[in-house]
Structure formats: C-alpha cells, structure tokens
Write a structure and sequence with these properties.
Strand content: 35-45%
CATH architecture of the largest domain: 3-Layer(aba) Sandwich
Number of domains: 2
Mean pLDDT: 91
Largest sheet: 8 strands, antiparallel
Number of strands: 18
CATH class of the largest domain: Alpha Beta
Shape: globular
Distance between the termini: 34 Å
Low-confidence stretches: none
Order of helices and strands: EEEHEEEHHHEHEHEEHHEEEEEEEE
CATH superfamily of the largest domain: P-loop containing nucleotide triphosphate hydrolases
Structural class: alpha+beta
Helix content: 25-40%
Number of helices: 8
Length: about 325
C-alpha cells in the first residue's frame, strides 16, 4: 500500500519534516495529529503530489511516485474550506472528476446518485452549492472525492470550520463510510477527539518528526514523551530525581516537589537522573495519595476541571468548593 521513507522538507531554510517514515495498510485509517506548523498538511500535499520532498521516497505498492503527477495518482483530497466550484450545482461538482476521467454520461449519473445517497444528499442534487450550509457543503466535497473510487482518501482538517455538534455528527458518518467502502485514508487534525474517533492508528507529529504512533488506546495509555502527554492533556507532568532503586522489583523511588513517588519504569536510569513523571487520577487501591486545597474550578462539558493550589489538576464529576481540601489518588508513569 502506501509507504513513506525518510522524507525531508525544508521551508524558508528551516527543517519542516525530518526523516518521516510511515506505512498505511489496506483499508486502514491513520491520523496525523499535531499542533499547527508541525508539517502535517505539507506531508499530505507531498503524498498528493502537490509538493515535492527534498529527499526521501513516496511509494504506492512498491512504485516510486516521484514521476507521477498529482492528477494521475488517483488520490482523493478533502480540504477544510470545501474547495467546491461555486458556479456549479451539487451534481456538477460531484461529477467533475468523473468527467475529467471521461466517464460515460449514464455511468456519471449512476455514480453521482450513489455517492450522494451515501452522504444523505440525494435530494440536493440540483441545488446550488452556495445555498448549502457548511456541513452540507462538506458532504458534497466528500462525495466528490469518493465519486472516482480513489485508491486513497486524504483529509486536511476537514471539519475545522464546523460547529461542535455538526462536527461530531459528520465525523461518525465519515468513520462509517470509510469502514463501508474500505478505502484507506489519512486524516490530518490538531484535535485529539477527532483523531481518536476516526483513526485506527494515530501518528503524533512534533518538530517535523513522528514521536509516537499506535492505536488510540495505546497512545492514550502511554503517550511516550512529555510533549505528547502535555499536548493531549493527559494529566500532570512534573519533574523529579531518581533517588534509589529496588533491584529485585525494579521499583524506583523518585523525589519531586510534591513528595516521593514509587514507580516501575522501563527506561534506563541512574541514581540522580532527572526524569519527568505523568500523574493521573486512579481508582486503584495502590494509587499514591495526594492532598491539596482547591484553587479553581471550571466546568468543561460534562465534568469539572479542578486545579489545586499546588498546581495539580484533576477532572471530577462534582465540583468542590474553592479552598476546600480534597484527597486524590494518582498513578505514576515515567516519561523519561
């Protein structure tokens, strides 16, 4: 399927992508997740053939695509701004790629009807795209990308311009369509909820490099780095110093500003090494107990973010009062 090998790209004399390699499997949806400016969209444009890497290979089923122009790669690309033709109606927008491939009119009508039905937009076939809502326009853009039966679908922040409720609805619809059609896909976003909902595998891009990849559950459980943990908002990241190790159990005792913590760590450390710890609330009996007074409480969707005077934060279903002393249990994971 798709394979990238050691892609490098420089922009304004600064490295944007550095040695990026990845593989996309049959029928798989992967998500490139990272902050703005991390190189996600540039990587997508290089796969599409709209930009060229400075070095490295982009391969499809073992074939180097360097000499294959964008319009012959048979890849579909969906943008945040829809990129529809305002002077064409819904049917004409969806049919555009099919006409470029010289499909017969009867086959074009059949295929356009199929993909619009798939998107729940068949009754809009004669409507002007300028009369549609943002969500409806994005459905048309997706139908247009699906119509030629592409070998690969790519999405560049496709839902960024939509409100939350519409974004969630379209995200689940898109997930269902990808599973139904079995088309492999690459989805670019800075939103972790989108990434974890849509992706079979998440690849986190930071400073031009893929710093973590895995299933959504694997990435959530073990972010692997300080940056990934903080970007995902997984918990409290604090600094500490390795003090002693129980060689029999592999347990390190780590000194921090919040006290001492015991942890099992797979990294190689020496006594005195500085480490970063991820603290997350747990229900387990073996969690480390921390106490603190509430400094701030903010309601976020269906829970409260509670910040303590010592800087730690936790998410609770019920809001404590400002100044109230609370006790929480945390699990400890070493980020290296």
């Amino acid at each position: 399927m798709l394979e990238l090998r050691d892609l490098d790209k420089t922009y304004e004399e600064q490295p944007l992508l550095r040695g990026v390699s990845l593989k996309l499997n049959v029928s798989e949806t992967i998500c490139l997740l990272g902050a703005s400016g991390s190189g996600k969209s540039t990587l997508l444009r290089m796969i599409a053939g709209l930009e060229m890497p400075d070095s490295g290979l982009i391969m499809w089923e073992g074939l180097d695509l360097a000499s294959v122009p964008a319009h012959l790669r048979d890849f579909g690309l969906v943008f945040q701004d829809y990129a529809l033709f305002p002077h064409l109606n819904v049917f004409e927008n969806v049919a555009f790629g099919l006409k470029m491939k010289s499909w017969a009119n009867v086959e074009i009508e059949k295929r356009v009807s199929e993909v619009l039905s798939l998107m729940g937009m068949k009754n809009f076939i004669s409507r002007k795209v300028t009369d549609l809502s943002g969500g409806e326009q994005q459905r048309v853009a997706l139908a247009r990308a699906l119509a030629p039966r592409p070998r690969l679908l790519m999405f560049d922040e496709p839902l960024g311009a939509l409100d939350r409720a519409l974004r969630e609805d379209l995200l689940f619809q898109l997930r269902g369509i990808l599973h139904q059609t079995h088309i492999p896909a690459i989805y670019v976003t800075h939103d972790q909820e989108e990434a974890f909902t849509i992706a079979d595998r998440v690849l986190m891009l930071h400073d031009g490099e893929i710093v973590r990849e895995g299933t959504p559950a694997e990435v959530w459980t073990n972010p692997g780095s300080v940056w990934a943990a903080e970007f995902l908002g997984l918990g409290n990241v604090i600094e500490g110093s390795c003090r002693s190790r129980n060689d029999k159990g592999g347990m390190w005792n780590v000194s921090t500003a919040l006290g001492r913590f015991n942890m099992i760590c797979g990294h190689e450390h020496l006594t005195g090494d500085e480490v970063h710890l991820l603290l997350r609330p747990v229900q387990a009996d073996d969690g480390t107990v921390i106490q603190g007074r509430v400094a701030d409480v903010v309601f976020q969707q269906d829970r409260f973010k509670v910040t303590l005077e010592n800087g730690l934060f936790v998410y609770l279903q019920n809001a404590p009062g400002i100044g109230q002393k609370i006790t929480i249990k945390v699990g400890v994971k070493c980020l290296g």
